[in-house]
Amino acid sequence: MRAAAQPLGIVLLLLAMGVPAIGQTSAPAVGTPQDRIQPSAPATFESPSAFEAGGVAPAVELLRNFKDSEVKFDVRELMNTLRDRRHEGWVLAAYPDPKTKRPLIGAGVSLDLPAREHLQRDPLNPHPFLEPSSAELWRAAGLDPARLQRILAQFSEHPALWAARKHRARIIRTLEPEITDEEATKLLRVSVVQAVLNAQAYCRDFDRLTASQQMALSQLVYQMGVNLEEFSQFLQLINSGNATNSVPGETLERTPEADRGHWEAVQESLIHSQWARLYRSRAVSVIAMLDPAYLESSVAAEQRVSATLRPPVVQRRRVRAAAPRELASSSRRGRTGHGKKSRSRTKQPA
Fold first, then answer.
1. Closest Cα partner for 263 from 299, 304, 310?
2. 107-116 pLDDT, tens digit each
3. How many CA atoms lie within 13 A of 100 on its CB side?
4. Rounded to an integer, what distance in angstroms lies between the CA atom of residue 343 and that of residue 332?
5. Spatial CB neighbours of 314, under 8 Å, sequence gap ≥ 6
6. What's the pLDDT tens digit per position in 55-104?
7. Distance of alpha carbon 340 from alpha carbon 269, whole angstroms
């Protein structure tokens, strides 16, 4: 666990700011408990003057002061993963989330989220949730707030364009860049840092996890944001019997067999989720990283998850299958007559 002297200062910062979880991806919208996550402001973008008047927000300071040495995995490796089109993709202009239609940029980073209060309900976890607004994330990345305003204004001018789901991929490919590759990388970094800080708030023993497990949990937070609250069984499992006693400062050791069984149960809770079925390739890689033996054989770990995870149901196959059946039904009438004549001919010689 981290030093106990830090939480008090962080808690005071939290009380001073009313802060969100990372709003970022096309993960399925499953809703969030209203008693845990509340917008601290209307769902509108804050004006740049709000930052200039009050100076640097506490959330911005926390994001900027993060050190890569605070986690076991390589932060750059997670950033490269999220830049991959098999995960979040990489678009240098504002584009709509395929489900919510809200503006995203870079590796699926939201552009118009308000700051939100996300309560820490685990008395054994000293880490608070960090839920800044999109504007604060933008500011933490060192980007001009006025520029974000212009990007959002331009995005809102083309609602009919974003409604054309059929041609969405082609439209995104033709968008003119609104930020540079370097600026998108800076924005991705602060978003990943927020995911790491919230991963610590979700898992009280985050520091005891392996490098791959820390990376998997951080990636889950990045992709799902506050929707991860709905994965109650998963969250309960990663915090139950995870080598921590109910008495602060005391630990319980598990046998290797018990530890393996524990993480298999954690993986199983995600394998049967709707998220895993809808985003199968992404889920296989993330769930496999929760295996304590992942670093020994990542391929074997992914194969085990892939063999268990059911493939998604493709509705289009049913639609395509309906047409041939209809054609077969209509053409059978013509063949039926010939069939009867054929059978009658075979009977005549007899």
1. 304
2. 999 999 999 9
3. 18
4. 16
5. none
6. 567 889 999 999 999 999 999 999 999 988 666 789 999 998 888 889 99
7. 58
Using the 8-state DSSP alphabet, how is residue 190 labeled?
H
Residue type, 219: Q
Give me the CATH number covering residue 14: 1.10.530.40
Q: Do you know the residue count of the chain?
A: 350
User: Alpha-carbon distance 188 to 108, whole Å?
Assistant: 9
267-284 tens-digit pLDDT: 999 999 999 998 898 999
Residue 320 lies in a domain: no
The verdict on residue 350 lying in a domain is no
Q: Residue 160 falls within a domain, yes or no?
A: yes
Contacts of 259 (CB under 8 A, 6+ apart): 292
Of 240, 262, 188, 242, the C-alpha closest to 218 is 188
Concatenated DSSP letters for 220-284?
HHHHHGGGGGG-HHHHHHHHSSSS--SSTT------HHHHHHHHHHHHHHHHTSHHHHHTHHHHH
Looking at residue 167, its amino acid is: H
Taking CA atoms, 237 is separated from 135, 150, 276, in Å, by: 34, 44, 17
**DSSP annotation of 96:** E
